[in-house]
User: What shape does this take?
Amino acid sequence: MTELVSSLAELGLSKQEATVYVAALQTGFGSISTIAKKAGIKRPTAYYIIDELIKKNLISRAPKGKRTFYVAEHPNTLLANLRAQEDRLMSQLPLLESMLNSAGNKPRIRFYEGKEGIKAMYAEVFSTHQKLLAIGSMQDISKHFSENECAEWFKLLSDKGGKIYDLVDDAPATRKYAKAAYRKGHGPLKYLPKDFKLGTDTIITGNKVALISYSALIGVLIENDEIAQTQRQMFEFMWKHL
Assistant: This one.
């Protein structure tokens, strides 16, 4: 029952609406009291929820004498409602696309917070078949992510057929990273000068530039052709002169 209610909730009903609709289906032809008891909610709440379900054509009133009973509509109505929503969305799609196009070359910027947020950002940028350019400190990364977590990102890169070019700080954790089994065969690595201090990590791939601050545990992902190209040229200049 819980799984069914959860599935209905994913289709646009609230949890209470899904619970009452299922209770009405099981009741067949019932009063407010009967449906409320079956759903495990109070009568005043049941009145409100049933009114909402009537608006969605999922329950109908069935007067009988001086009393009013309620009947759940066939579950096919759920499918009809979804199709109607899809039709409404399709009718608005040209307008939404025009808004996207009007943005022109404005960068798309997304922010990620905390370990899980940064982990999700890494998963996105490593899921590429293109060349991935990275400037970073394994000293910082190793404080927050295990070798197994790092290996997962490299598996994504391997599955897509991508390569990584690393410019990294010369630190013990980075030397260990360079020899790690999951790192081997994925692309070349060069060490930055010992006096080169990194405040953030940078990853460039395609039209994306990812910036990560481990002191604040915040990531920023920028999608823009010009910004990515500028960062790529700066990386290639550094790579050439090391």
About this structure: Strands lie at 59-64, 67-72, 108-113, 131-136, 163-168, 189-191, 201-205, 208-213, 218-223. The mean pLDDT is 85. The radius of gyration is 28 Å.
